[in-house]
Amino acid sequence: MTHYLRLDAVFVCTDKADSDEAFDDFTDRVFDELLKLQAIDTGIVEPDVTANLAERKMSILLGIEASTSRDAIRLFLANVRCALHAAECGTEGWPRYEPADDPLPPVRHVDFAGA
Q: Measured between alpha carbons, how far is 44 from 66 in angstroms, rounded to an integer?
């Protein structure tokens, strides 16, 4: 089953060279990394990235092939974090995910057509 999930994130740049163009380049790098992950993992479906450059916001949408919602969320978060790291973005403070103890992380199911 394909689960479509979206993560909405706000970024804080500490680089003095920050600009709308630099953030646009960063979002392109994240998208490229998601495409690379999709190329090696058939469980990743139709990645997409949208961004608000002025507000430094990014939405990452992925379809994840998984048997359960919990598995889909786990795989979604791992792949998103991998793409961010590959695009040279630190993820300090990333929420820990302990399936046995923690509630589900803050992601939500979306209709792919409306995302």
A: 10
